[in-house]
Amino acid sequence: MTTIAAQVSVDSRGPCALYIAPDSRITWGKSEDRWDSGQKSFASSSSPDIFGYFGSAFFPTQVLNQVTRQIEAGILFAFDAGAEERHGRWLKTIRSSLENSSNPQVKDFSILHGAREGEGMSCSFRLWEAKFSSANQSWMDTEIDLRKDHSHFASVNGSGKPGLIRRLREPSLKTETQTSRNAFQKLFQSIAKEDDSLSGGAPQIVGMFRVRNAQHFGMIWNEKRYFSGCKLVAGSNYQSIDWFNDQFERADGKTKKRLTGAKKH
Asked: How many CB atoms neighbour CB 158 within 10 A?
């Protein structure tokens, strides 16, 4: 049922990055019936848009893959479309797709959409939550306020929310509070310790910076390589993507060690 957080990173000049980070566990009614390699985060390689979901798993994972393919094909919106237009178009697409379903197994779910408006130092980041209620077949779309004075989790959700909130409230070094590394370390600890039995597997991260389009990040977890929740059992060109480890340090995908020159957390 997911532990998921959306993180705004802030440096001395203002917001500099936006991430969505869920776990990888999909369950069927109980924690014993699970799959720990499910994709819960999505990023468009041709636009500054990232997505993540929690709740009922089947429909969101299918339709978000379809939507990101449409974005990357250049048919959902123009490359210079603003964040508001991009948000409206993907949400309209998802709502239309769901109308084709008569399956009562589509339960409640929510989708987070992170977007960047503009590029460079003048850019801004935005975040929405689109919530579907199966009881009355209705949607509620809400934009989440993003603070600009310090790094923070702008959204914490899923069945693992109580456990993660408890960890975030635990004492930290004064120099570590209100930092991205502290928040992500608490998220990773919550997933690793299974504070929520319905959350597990490797964390997965999608995000974007002030420049370039959105991206999927690789994850070094328990000395293994993961990408979108899936363990890599074959591969070679690990330098083609950026990686993080369980301390939220930049990592080397080939050696699985902290990247040379990266700040130690």
From this structure: 24
pTM of the model: 0.95
Fold (topology level) of 4-251: Glutamine Phosphoribosylpyrophosphate, subunit 1, domain 1 (3.60.20)
Q: What is the per-residue DSSP string for 124-161?
A: EEEEEEEEEETTTTEEEEEEEP--SSS-EEEEEESTTH
Residue with tokens 């998220």: 187
Residue 145 φ/ψ, nearest 5 degrees: -70, 135
Are 34 and 142 spatial neighbours (Cβ–Cβ below 8 Å)? no
- Other CB atoms within 10 A of residue 170 CB: 8
Average pLDDT over residues 49-62: 95
E strand residue ranges, the chain: 4-11, 14-22, 26-27, 34-35, 41-43, 49-55, 109-117, 124-133, 138-144, 152-157, 205-209, 215-221, 224-227, 230-231, 243-244, 250-251
Number of DSSP helices (H) and strands (E) in the chain, helices first: 4, 16
Those residues whose C-beta lies under 8 Å from the C-beta of residue 204, and which sit 6 or more positions away, are 21, 22, 23, 24, 39, 40, 41, 216, 219, 226, 227, 228, 229
Interval 186-206: pLDDT, tens? 999 999 999 999 999 999 999
Backbone angles phi, psi at 200, to 5 degrees: 175, -165
- Residue that is written with structure tokens 């960890």 in the block: 167
Other beta carbons less than 10 A from residue 160's beta carbon? 28
Cβ(9)–Cβ(151) under 8 Å?
yes
| Residue 68 pLDDT | 97
Question: pLDDT tens-digit profile of 198-227?
Answer: 999 999 999 999 999 999 999 999 999 999
CB 110 within 8 A of CB 55: yes
Write down the pLDDT at residue 29: 81
